Amino acid sequence: MFPFPIKPTLLNLFLLCISFHASHSVSPLFHFCFSHENYTSNSPYATNLNQLFSLLYTKVPPSGFGLASVGKGVADRANGLALCRGDVATTNCESCVVEASKKLQERCPDKKGAIVWYDYCLLKYSNEYFFGEIDTKNKFYMINIYDVDDPTSFNSKVNELLSSLSHEASGTPELYAIGELKLEGSRTLYGLAQCTRDLLGPGCKKCLDDAISEIPNCCDGKKGGRVVGGSCYVRYELYPIVEA
């Protein structure tokens, strides 16, 4: 894996380039320390945040998603959620959430809002209440460095598959869908779409459709790509994405 960022836009949008196969290491895909506010180690917010992490360790693994708010006063309340990829086993989900909370505290020390993504999970927290709102600010791309032979035809197939998965995912309780599309020859295109479950179906579909609309900007003619955000993400590859 050879990631490198480009100059950030107003939406804190980054582009990462990866090798042919996605990595399942414990290294995060990316993170943002998005809050400009700080807290001190002995403050009520710090206490609430630690309790929030403990709650997420417990709530997330059984179903793959959980959210919580800790703290009575609005100023010191810590709000957070974690989501595991739909196919990830409970033990791997738990390990990912635990690692994500540790990594955020290392990389965003004393920040009142941050988010981190792994291949298996994402974790986000903030002193601001964000549940049910589509996160349009925390976002990045990942692309396969290799090009396809017929970009026009391939791009059309990618849009066809991901659009169908957006419709399917937004209609399920898990807000998650995977699928595949047979291409010419013996090739198969694999896709995935998933939203955080604080969104309702229509919000999930809007989030996914907006992500799909960005595929041409990041991944035109590439053999694989992802648009990853704080509320949803889509991915396509020419190899299986999820666990067998």
UniProtKB/TrEMBL annotation:
Keywords: Glycoprotein, Repeat, Secreted, Signal. It holds the Pfam family Stress-antifung. GO terms for cellular component: extracellular region. Residues 1-25 form the signal peptide. It comes from the Eukaryota. Belongs to the cysteine-rich repeat secretory protein family. The keyword Aminoacyl-tRNA synthetase does not apply. It is found in: Secreted. It comes from Senna tora. Residues 27-130, 136-241 form the Gnk2-homologous domain. InterPro entries: CRR_secretory_protein (IPR050581), GNK2 (IPR002902), GNK2_sf (IPR038408). This is Cysteine-rich repeat secretory protein 38-like. Its main location: secreted.
